[in-house]
Design goal:
The structure holds 2 protein chains of 2 kinds.
Chain A lengths: L3 E2 L4 E5 L4 E7 L6 E7 L6 E7 L4 E4 L2 E6 L4 E6 L8 E8 L4 E3 L3 E6 L1
Chain B lengths: L3 E4 L2 E4 L5 E7 L5 E7 L5 E8 L2 E5 L6 E7 L2 E6 L8 E8 L11 E2 L3 E5 L1
Parallel strand pairs in B: 2-11
Antiparallel strand pairs in B: 1-3, 3-8, 4-5, 4-9, 5-6, 7-8, 9-10, 9-11
The chains are: A mainly beta, B mainly beta.
């Protein structure tokens, strides 16, 4: 019973184009959502987050969109750069713990 | 200047052995966590401690025992290791308990445990 799902195991994008990573959740009690980025042999690092009272949060090239009615969020990276190639984890919180998705591998081709 | 460190980075051992993974954070955070990333790549929380007190204890076999000698350290002891314990274990810390705004979790580099 995975409460946070990232249905695309991988995504390949050309440098300079937009990357869109998707995440779905099932628990309507989640009120805070985060994206983490992970390089090989390293731990995940925080990227961007959004509260359930908002529908969009932007930080430089990264924007997270939240659609509460659809229980869906997405991460947009514009423009994509080769250094963005990593695993991206979606996470959700309804209290004192985070529930993570399985991650999406993003490859940005130069 | 590592924020969250774990040792060892790799651990290969035989079934039935007892092993420990150490975690230290120098961020002055009150809360520390252990996560397990299994073969399906999900990161699942195992334990969290706040100021040395156990807060979260997910459905984890009691062969796994966390120990927090002080709030900067959270070690994970595993007894009678089984094949299914093979995974990457991540330690993390955050300023306080609530997983919300301005309380992001900082992760260590992970410990890859292989049980033969």
């Amino acid at each position: 019973d995975q409460q946070v799902k990232q249905n695309s195991p991988s995504l390949s994008v050309q440098e300079g184009r937009i990357s869109i990573l998707n995440c779905d959740y099932t628990n309507s009690m989640f009120d805070y959502f985060l994206w983490y980025k992970k390089y090989p042999a390293e731990g995940p690092t925080f990227l961007i987050s959004i509260s359930s009272i908002k529908d969009k949060n932007e930080d430089g090239r990264f924007t997270v969109f939240l659609n509460k009615s659809a229980k869906h969020l997405s991460l947009h990276i514009v423009p994509s750069q080769p250094g963005d190639s990593a695993v991206y984890f979606c996470a959700a919180s309804g209290g004192n713990k985070l529930v993570f998705g399985a991650g999406t591998i993003l490859r940005v081709k130069s | 200047d590592t924020a969250v460190s774990q040792t060892p980075k790799y651990l290969v051992t035989q079934m039935g052995n007892d092993k420990s993974i150490k975690c230290e954070q120098n961020l002055g955070h009150d809360t520390m966590y252990w996560y397990k990333q299994d073969s399906k790549k999900f990161l699942k929380i195992m334990f969290s401690y706040n100021n040395k007190e156990l807060i979260i204890n997910e459905t984890v076999p009691n062969r796994f025992s966390p120990k927090s000698p002080d709030k900067a350290h959270l070690n994970l002891h595993i007894n009678s290791l089984e094949l299914g314990d093979s995974a990457v274990y991540f330690c993390a810390s955050s300023q306080d308990l609530l997983a919300g705004t301005y309380n992001e979790q900082f992760f260590g580099p992970g410990t890859r445990l292989t049980v033969l």
